[in-house]
Amino acid sequence: MSLKNTLLTATGFLLLGVGAVGVIVPVLPTTPFVIAASVCFAGNPRLRAWLMKSKFFAEHINNYKQRTGLCTRTVALSLGFLWAMLVTSILAVGELWLTLLLFGIGIAVSTHILWIAQPKKKDSIENKTKENTYD
User: What is the dihedral of CA 74, 77, 80, 81, to 10 degrees?
Assistant: First the structure.
């Protein structure tokens, strides 16, 4: 294995680790780190295949590629972990300004999760035609 492939593989595993932590930590996104790890593993077909066979990580990559949205279970788990950790933090700190800040972050992240959970609609041919015409 070349130095480049070794560094990419190590970086890929590091990114996967950060992505896995993102499952538990409410404001750390999982998907961008998993996709970046997938790119790092592109030079190693065995690791790439392993990643795509992984139940958890493959869902994030396939959702990104196909824009199919997230399954209800993933959304429920994400929102559950998010609010459980935020409420725990709010109770532990007890400061009004921090409570408001964490609540605002929770609303923003919840909105983002619900937004990416929706499947993306494919553009109709009419919309593509309108974009390509000059007025």
Answer: -110
98-135 exposure pattern, b = at least 16 Cβ within 10 A, e = fewer: ebeebeeebeebbeebeebbeeeeeeeeeeeeeeeeee
Look at the block and give the residue holding tokens 């998993």: 34
Please tell me the distance from the alpha carbon of residue 32 to that of residue 17, in angstroms, as a whole number: 12
Return d(Cα 53, Cα 25) in angstroms, integer.
24
Sequence-distant (≥ 6) Cβ neighbours of residue 73 within 8 angstroms: none
- Asked whether 66 and 60 are in contact (CB, 8 A), the reply is no
pLDDT in tens, 73-125: 878 887 888 898 889 989 998 899 999 999 998 898 888 888 877 777 665 33
Q: Is the pLDDT of residue 46 over 50?
A: yes
Question: pLDDT per residue over 47-60, tens digit each?
Answer: 888 988 887 788 77
Q: CA of 132: how far to CAs of 86, 120, 123, in Å?
A: 46, 21, 13
Helix (H/G/I), strand (E/B), else coil: 59? helix
